[in-house]
Amino acid sequence: MSNEPTVDPKTMEKIVSLCKRRGFIFPSSEIYGGLASAWDYGPLGVELKNRLQRFWWREMTQLHDNIVGLDAAILMHPTVWKASGHVDSFSDTMVEDTVTNERYRWDHLTDEQRETKTSPKGNPLSEPREFNLMFKTHLGPASDSGSTVYLRPETAQGIYVNFKNVVQTSRVKIPFGIAQVGKAFRNEIVTKNFIFRTVEFEQMEMQYFVKPGEDDRWFEFWKAERLKYYEKLGIRQDHLRFEEHGPDELAHYAKAAFDIQYLFPFGWQELEGIHNRTDFDLARHSEFCGKEINYLDEETKERYIPYIVETSAGLTRSVLMVLSDAYEEEEVGENDVRTVLRFHPMIAPVQVGVFPLVKKDGLAEKAREIEMALREDFSTFYDQSGAIGRRYRRQDEIGTPFCVTIDYETMEQGTVTLRHRDSMEQERVSLGELGQRLREAIKSYRRADT
Asked: Where do the Aminoacyl-transfer RNA synthetases class-II family profile domain residues begin and end (predicted)?
């Protein structure tokens, strides 16, 4: 895949502004000055995030007969994190500007800055030190070492410690997967680029358990499948690429690792990781809990610890990806530019806007009746204020793919005007066929520039 497309950092500012103005994402605790690296999802934002999550869940579970779901607790036994290596090694090497007290990751500095121990502002830096990224808290009334627990820094471990439970209750056979969506927490020192890197985030992970020796084949399979997912979501393919982890970049548990990167307005960045984790995780938990965690093949009577192919995507980061990919400023006439979010209709917060041409002569009442009927199958929004063109533009800006206008022909002939967001084309559709026409348009949707 090509990395030729260019980026415009100013686009990021416009997306952040739109998100605040139209109710997608707000700064957390804004009335108190906000909290760095924390964000709240407004009425449109929570719909977008939930629909994106359901899109992923459908692709991972409903469309696969050998992938089941799980929702593990955020708080887990502290030994889980000892076994996984997070207690001892989940850290970043940090340095501090001795003048401004700003902190930087050591590996993010240039060779010259590391050699001279000076910050990006030219000030002296402190000695490098390790900073663990896990949040500690306490369970129960006493705040002592015996009550220490952690806010999970990833969701994968909840899947591994439930491996035996799932095998015994779901009758799954290798190869099979366990999918999970949930919150994770990392005490990131450097947070930037809006919701791209935050201390509280959501992950969409699937751990695929395979027979040792077959892991390379399944690793390549899931690399291809995950790219198909983004294509199905309508993401521009020239804004996606694979980036392989070199030998020095591999995590301690990984045999192989690739990132799917997306070209955000601030450059190429990781969107999803695909890793061959070998049998490291299950073997470690077996060692630390003192119980066998393995798989018995009923046909061959062979018993082994499965290898794991992991696909791990950030849900919150995916929200920023679809916002970035959908955002467009389009010239539609002389000195006329419309802002439009070209969301796939499956994830658009509002799928159908319904408008009466005017508020009189029973048109508003008829429009309300139609909107209420469409609610059964689509997410809808009713608007009767302002000129019809202005109402269309408001819906374009929040990514509504279809608008239905009720006019005098509706009252006389039972037809409505159906407007398409991307092309701005309009067609007359009978009320009896409207629902089916919308379903067909959603199912067959393909963005023109993908």
From this structure: 13-345
393 labelled binding-site residue: no
Give the pLDDT confidence score for residue 225 in this predicted structure: 96
**Contact present, 341 and 399 (Cβ < 8 Å):** yes
Q: Is 196 annotated as a binding residue?
A: yes
If the chain, 450 residues long, is cut into consecutive pieces of 10 residues, what is the mean pLDDT of each piece?
68 95 95 90 97 97 96 96 86 82 82 90 88 85 76 96 96 96 86 88 97 97 97 94 91 91 95 96 96 94 97 96 96 89 97 96 96 96 95 97 97 97 96 96 87
314 is in an annotated binding site: yes
pLDDT at 108: 79
pTM value is 0.89
28 has binding-site annotation: no
Please enumerate in sequence order all residues whose Cβ is within 8 A of that of 403, keeping only pairs 6 or more positions apart, or say none.
Answer: 352, 353, 354, 355, 391, 392, 395, 418, 419, 421
**Yes or no: domain 350-443 corresponds to CATH 3.20.20.100:** no
What is the Rg, in whole angstroms, of the alpha carbon atoms belonging to the chain? 25
Three-state secondary structure call for residue 96: strand
Domains of the chain, residue spans: 9-79+151-323, 350-443
CA atoms of 61 and 65, how far apart (whole Å) = 7
Is there a binding annotation on residue 199?
A: yes
Tell the burial category of 42 from Cβ atoms under 10 Å away from its Cβ (0-12, 13-18, 19+). Answer: middle
| Helices and strands counted in the chain (H then E) | 14, 23
Give the three-state DSSP class for 371. helix
**How far apart, in whole angstroms, are the C-alpha atoms of residue 346 and residue 48?**
10
Q: Is 271 annotated as a binding residue?
A: yes
- CATH architecture of the domain with residue range 9-79+151-323: 2-Layer Sandwich (3.30)
Residue 355 marked ligand-binding = no
Beta strands in 115-199 (DSSP E): 129-132, 135-138, 148-151, 176-185
